[in-house]
What does this fold into?
Amino acid sequence: MDMTPEEYRRYVRQKEKKSPILKDVLLAFVVGGAICVIGQVIQNGWSALGLSEEDAGTATSCTLVYLSALLTGLNLYHKIARFGGAGTLVPITGFANAVVSPALDFKSEGFVTGMAAKMFTVAGPVIVFGTLASVLYGVVLLLLE
It folds into this structure.
């Protein structure tokens, strides 16, 4: 079947699935907002247990990372992500999912060369650039004082 590039483009446009963008945006907003509300409820709970605001924030972050990793391990985070799309990329839960998913996918290749190595495929650059950015911000803050 010989096609010109223009004929191929028309053929692809006919076959492509139309994206329900408004529905996708609304679901992302609702699911992302629900994750944030859950985070706020968790933080309020830690505060009610007597933690300071700073400690409650730290405990909340740890709890959200744990819950995200647990849901990923139980294959539930993927189902939530398929429903809520970009709403599940809320930074801390999405990052935990991005670290745990490759680790689970490559565990059959062994602990070191599979799980441990692949776990940082996505997370590695984020950690490196996050660390670099925090150092640069710290130097700027130091110079401005």
Notes: The mean pLDDT is 86. The radius of gyration is 21 Å. The chain has six helices and no strands. The chain has one domain: 20-144.
